[in-house]
Design brief:
By secondary structure, this protein is mainly beta. It folds into 2 domains: 46-146, no CATH class; 162-283, no CATH class. The chain is built from 3 helices and 18 strands. The chain has helices at 22-41, 121-124, 245-250, and strands spanning 46-51, 62-65, 68-78, 85-91, 104-108, 111-113, 116-118, 128-132, 144-146, 162-168, 179-182, 185-195, 202-208, 221-224, 228-233, 237-242, 252-256, 269-274. The protein has a 7-stranded mixed sheet, with no helix packed on it. Strands 10-13-12-11-17-14-18 form a 7-stranded mixed beta barrel. The protein has a two-stranded antiparallel ribbon with strand order 6-7.
């Protein structure tokens, strides 16, 4: 029996896994990162706004500034203590400047009163959040806000017009937003109606547009131009006097200045508000140059 050589042993080098599969994975990672950056560049900052309630507001509602949509409501939840409603909103990229200290937000709802209807667009359309930009220089960034219950009442400045106060026995249908009329032309607005501190009269605050401030003189006369007046006499029959439709619906104050106009008045001057005009007031026709430097 001959000795046979042992079988040859073949040693194979270990196979190295191919690295080609890493190329598509890396490409997908780069693409995902690019898309993530792109999406975040197209999104504005997220903010939260706390309101006492959010009745009628729904996700998808707009945030509106000067009639332009500057954001959208993404979600509505209750606060942790269940005492308020937290609205999560996303601002548009171009409106990122609203995410700062001092920006004000309030929900616009339809309001019906003696002075007329406000928020009329929300009767037939969805509710929305009104946005007012901060009025301070270099405000600090902010992401959480306390919403207002209604549109803010800001103090009147000289740029807004001439502020005068009217004393009336009754407010009637005059309310905030009612017009101030001169020759049945709107020249100002009512910005506040309240009882005097001693409750003897009603104080009506009015602001006259800057262009028409020179019409107000110390001998001007104001009266309630709201509603419809009815007079009946046995021999003359029924007489009905009505102002403009706007005055009937929203209330209004009118005034006249004598032909021999007195000196101009300063801010805060007080006048009596009469329930109706005297016939001679309607005949006055002063020639008063208007201050229209802006024109």
């Amino acid at each position: 029996m001959s000795d046979s050589p042992p079988p040859a042993t073949v040693t194979r080098a270990p196979r190295r896994g191919s690295l080609l599969w890493l190329i598509p994975v890396a490409a997908l990672a780069v693409l995902a990162a690019f898309l993530w950056v792109q999406v975040n560049q197209e999104r504005g900052p997220r903010i939260t706004i706390a309101f006492p309630d959010a009745a009628g507001l729904e996700p998808g509602a707009d945030l509106i500034h000067r009639g332009v949509s500057v954001g959208v409501v993404r979600g509505i939840t209750l606060s942790r203590d269940f005492e308020s409603v937290v609205v999560e909103a996303e601002l548009a990229p171009f409106a990122a400047g609203f995410a700062v200290e001092g920006t004000r937000f309030w929900i616009v709802r339809p309001e019906v009163g003696l002075g007329g209807v406000s928020g009329l667009d929300t009767i037939i359309g969805p509710r929305y959040i009104a946005v007012e930009q901060a009025r301070t220089d270099n405000p600090a960034p902010r992401r959480s806000f306390e919403g207002l219950e209604s549109a803010p009442d800001d103090p009147v400045t000289a740029e807004d017009g001439l502020l005068v106060r009217l004393r009336a026995q009754s407010a009637g249908s005059i309310t905030r937003g009612s017009a101030v009329l001169y020759r049945n032309t709107r020249v100002g607005r009512i910005i506040g109606v309240k009882l005097a501190d001693n409750a003897t009269v009603v104080e009506v605050d009015a602001v006259i547009d800057p262009d028409y401030a020179r019409l107000i003189r110390d001998n001007s006369r104001f009266w309630d131009a709201s509603g419809v007046g009815v007079d009946f006499g046995l021999f003359r029959g029924l007489s009905v006097e009505a102002g403009s439709i706007d005055a009937v619906l929203r209330g209004a104050v009118a005034f006249a200045t004598p032909t021999d106009a007195g000196p101009v008045v300063g801010p805060g001057h007080e006048f009596d508000l009469e329930p109706a005009p005297e016939s001679r007031w309607l005949e006055w026709s002063p020639a008063i140059p208007l201050d229209r430097a802006a024109d």
